[in-house]
Amino acid sequence: MENLRVIFIGSSHFFRSISDMVFPRLIDCTIPFLLDSADSYSFLRGNPTIENTVLLPVPGQFTSNNHIQPIHMPGLRYFFGSEIAACALVPGSPVSTIGIGWGPNPPTGYSRGLSAAASSTAEIYGLTTVIPSWDPALLSAITQHTPRIQFLKMWAPRCSGLTLEKDVFLAAMDTTLRSLTRLTNLIVTDNTLLDRIADALESEFDRVRRWGDICPTLKRVCLSGKPTAWIRRKGLWLPANCITDHSESDECLRWFIKKVVLSPELPSDYRDLGKHFAGAAGMRVLTKAARKGEALPTFHVLRRESGRTVISFPSNP
Asked: Which of 27, 214, 227, 305 is the most exposed, having the fewest neighbouring CB atoms within 10 Å of its CB?
């Protein structure tokens, strides 16, 4: 056991049986965070070599009024766990990447957990928040306590769909982004299932472009899942899968090419990028139809051996 470097234990019962053991080379651990006993605290204090930890919530534990026992973790770089656990482990530790989960109606809002994050001896680079609802108060706490983050993920696993609550939250991001002057990667996600990728892209495009104008450092945005992640290339926003061989790549390319053709108000560089994906000949056909006010003809995306793409039009029967 002396050479053990990684531990993953999901069972609270089994964890209790090894909680007093010391593993001198342990770096990475995933364990239950038990608030009704000293087992978790004992294990963490006895293994100060830990650099990455995920502390699993234990169902049925009442956490809001538990006394927080500080634990000094001199090597801790990555932390993921509840707000209570963050308050115990992060202050005074060199954590640079942190994930915090909140239950419904957090009694102290979000400030206590994010204040703990700000008390790390290292600058926080990445922040993941797991939240019960789309509460704009979270955004205020983030700008107050962790304004220099470069990566931000906000995940509401119990929510789905574009509700009024989520729309208000997304609108509040406009103000938040003005304060996150180093942010490069933003993810806002929930349990929404995508029906059509093109519909998601259409609904997100204007918002993503606006956020990019507000936050010049922003390079990647994801609002509804991996197939519709957005990236900024030379000042232009496009679906990330336009430049990959992902299974949804063709659908993303078709949407982007159509959007460019049908949106003459976009900067001309978008048209140049559309021509890059569609080919000059294909772009001329689509542009001609758009100028006549006709429906764009159906087209397919073809990939050359070089990896470049062009579009082709099915022959009339």
From this structure: 305
Residue with tokens 């204007």: 206
Q: Which residues contact 237 (CB under 8 A, 6 or more apart)?
A: 205, 208, 209, 212, 221, 230, 231
CB-CB contact of 37 with 57 (8 Å): no
Give tens-digit pLDDT for 244-255. 887 789 999 999
- What would the pLDDT profile of 44-68 be if each residue is shown by its tens digit? 999 999 999 999 988 776 655 556 7
Global pTM exceeds 0.90: yes
Cα distance between residue 267 and residue 231, in whole Å: 17
Distance of alpha carbon 22 from alpha carbon 1, whole angstroms: 9
AA identity, residue 283? M
* Three-state SS annotation for the chain: CCCCCEEECCCHHHHHHHCCCCCCCCCEEEEECCCCCCHHHHHHHHCCCCCEEEEECCCCCCCCCCCCCCCCCCCCCEEEEEHHHHHHHCCCCCCCEEEEECCCCCCCCCHHHHHHHHCCCCCCCEEEEECCCCCHHHHHHHHHHCCCCCEEEEEECCCCCCCHHHHHHHHHHHHHHHHCCCCCEEEEEECCCCCCHHHHHHHHHHHHHHHHHHCCCCCEEECCCHHHCEEEECCEEEEHHHHCCCCCHHHHHHHHHHHHHHCCCCCHHHHHHHHHHHCHHHHHHHHHHHHCCCCCCCCEEEECCCCCEEEECCCCC
**pLDDT 10s digits, 65-94:** 556 789 999 999 999 999 999 999 999 999
Tokens of 158: 């119990």
Q: What are phi and psi of 262, to 5 degrees?
A: -90, 5
Are the CB atoms for 257 and 277 separated by under 8 Å?
yes
> In whole angstroms, how far apart are CA 93 and each of 75, 80, 88?
7, 14, 10
